[in-house]
Amino acid sequence: MYILENNNEKIIVWGKSQLDDLMMQVKLDDYIRITYLGVVKTQNNRQMKMYNLQKKLLKENL
Asked: How far apart are CA 2 and CA 30, in angstroms?
């Protein structure tokens, strides 16, 4: 579970395998956008939810 803050509002996002891998590159003060891309079938014929993650550093972090 990830607890994100947006304009002092806390948002809870449940982790998934692919999202967890993407979140490993996020630092504490990064601005992020998570986009749900839909469901795909894996090689094992299972369904997996796919996400895209975009991040932007704060100017102070550069």
From this structure: 14
